[in-house]
Amino acid sequence: MNKSAIPFVIIGSLSVIVGGVLSAASAGSPTYTSSWAVAYLVLVAGVAQLVLGIGQAELASKVLPSRLVAAEAVALNLSTAAVLLGTLLAAPGLTYLGAALLVIGLAMFVWAVRGAGTHLPWLLWAFRIMVIVLLVSAPVGLVIAHARAA
Known about the structure:
Blueprint lengths: L5 H21 L5 H28 L6 H23 L3 H21 L8 H29 L1
Helix pairs in contact: 1-2, 2-3, 2-5, 3-4, 4-5
């Protein structure tokens, strides 16, 4: 595995595990918020991070600078923390900050794979689809968060 994927594989995998533990812990008395948090941890912090990190590592046409990888990891994971906290604390401003950080992080990922070759077309499509899904779901999530906080 390309070493630039390591932070995303570690954090993404841990997010899936934490989501599973949270799901098990709240199974006896699930709430909308706990169910949402589990889904967010597993799908955005976990699966999306794995697809983006591994995809970028395999698709980048040159070795990625460690500063770029660190900036992506920070943006993506601060985004997750802000969205989770903003939702759990009913603080829409924090949720908006998280969405903005997500867009910044996604822009860095897209920039990193510019000029990607066609040696792994399925991975390039998975990467692009993940970016699009996240970009489309972020505003939808903001509307829902804002409506719930109101």
